[in-house]
Each structure stands twice: as C-alpha cells, then as structure tokens.
UniProtKB/TrEMBL annotation:
Keywords tagged on the record: Membrane, Transmembrane, Transmembrane helix
Taxonomic placement: Bacteria, Candidatus Yonathiibacteriota
Domain of life of the native organism: Bacteria
GO cellular component: plasma membrane
Ranges of residues in domain DUF218: 46-163
Name assigned to this protein: DUF218 domain-containing protein
InterPro entries: Cell_Envelope_Assoc, DUF218
Source organism (scientific name): Candidatus Yonathbacteria bacterium RIFCSPHIGHO2_01_FULL_51_10
Transmembrane segments: 6-28
Length: 214
C-alpha cells in the first residue's frame, strides 16, 4: 500500500508539474503581445471577437458585450479595417455570431467590414479558420485577460501575427480562470497533433467585402 501510495503521489505530482509548466510557458510567451490600452496596440488586418455565451433570446452575455465593445473601440481607433466574429453556430437554435453582427450594425459599424465565422466552435478552431478560411495574417484578439494568453499563443503558433487587447470590464468570475488551466493543456495537444477544425470550407478573404458572405 505504501508503494502504491508513493506511485500515485508521484504520478499526481508529475501531472501537476506539467500543467504548471504549460500554463506558465503560455503566459510568459504571450505577455509582451497583450495590451491593456487600445492606443498602445499595433495595427492589424482585423480584430477577432471569440464567441461567448448568449441568452436564449439572442442577447449577448456581459462578457460577450465587453469583447464586442472593445473590438468596436479598436476598429474606431483605426487599428484594424475589419471585424471577424467567430463563434458557435452548430445548430439553428444556437447562433453566437449573428446577434453580434446585429449589435455591431446598431453601433454604426459598416456591414462591409463585418465578417462572420459560424464554425468557431473553440478558440483553436477560431484561429485556425481565421488563417485558412479568412486568410488573416495579422490580428488583434479582443477578449478578457483570462482568455488572452491562450488565444494569442494558439494564433501565433499557427503563424498569425497576433496580439491581444484586454476587454476586462469587471464581468469575470474565478471559475473563468480555473477553466483556462485545463483549456491550456487542450490547446497544447491540439497544436502538437495539428488537429483540423470540424469544418473548413471555401475561402472568404478578410480584406474583401463582408456583404458578399452570409
């Protein structure tokens, strides 16, 4: 029993050590690419808004609104010329991207500059499709501090010149940070094994006209 306990403790210790190393590595490799101010952020082709929770009536959650509002500020500051909304539209009843388009239009963003990725089922898929479907080579990611390191790390590992803009507005819970601990491990596995997203499809050039695409 003592030997079994030793091996169990050793195994758990090794797992925790790997988790710590991966999370620390992602944080330190991306921190110089993350900005708290729109003014300090570099220019890029587009700002990418990762999907987040929506309510049954299509209303955006607080975290989602914060991401979209920061993206609008980035766009209005002239840092980007296009907005790419990426989210889960896996069913007719669950659509994370169309409500954002409606929100952006109400805020005065021209329709031609809005692009929708309906198959951004997770952060890895969003970044992969941004590169392979939309042809994005440089991007500002508008999301919260707990999500930025993983987002930027995935994008840069996939070859996108990516930076992050902090969309924190106080609507964050401790569980958001806890979730990222394991999400970082999944991201590393996805990158290591070159996972392809569930859907790819026809090219949609990000520097084109968003009105030409549904």
């Amino acid at each position: 029993m003592k030997r079994l306990f030793f091996y169990l403790a050793y195994g758990c210790g090794m797992i925790l050590a790997v988790i710590l190393v991966i999370n620390a590595g992602i944080y330190f490799k991306t921190r110089s690419y993350i900005y708290n101010s729109v003014d300090d952020a570099p220019e890029a082709e587009a700002v990418l808004i990762p999907g987040a929770a929506i309510f049954p009536d299509g209303t955006l959650s607080s975290i989602f609104i914060d991401r979209v509002d920061m993206a609008i500020r980035v766009y209005e500051a002239g840092k980007v010329s296009k907005i790419l909304v990426s989210g889960d539209n896996s069913t007719v009843s669950h659509n994370e991207v169309n409500p954002v388009r409606t929100y952006l239009l109400k805020k005065g963003v021209p329709d031609k500059d809005i692009f929708l990725d309906h198959a951004g089922f997770d952060t890895y898929s969003s970044m992969y499709r941004a590169r392979d479907i939309f042809g994005v080579t440089s991007v500002l990611v508008s999301t919260q501090s707990f999500h930025l390191p993983r987002s930027v790390f995935i994008a840069r590992t996939l070859g996108i010149n990516a930076y992050g803009v902090n969309a924190d507005e106080g609507h964050i819970f401790f569980r958001n940070y806890v979730r990222e601990v394991l999400a970082n491990e999944k991201a590393m596995l996805d990158l290591t094994f070159h996972r392809q997203p569930k859907y790819l499809g026809d090219k949609i050039p990000i520097m084109g006209d968003g009105r030409n695409y549904p």
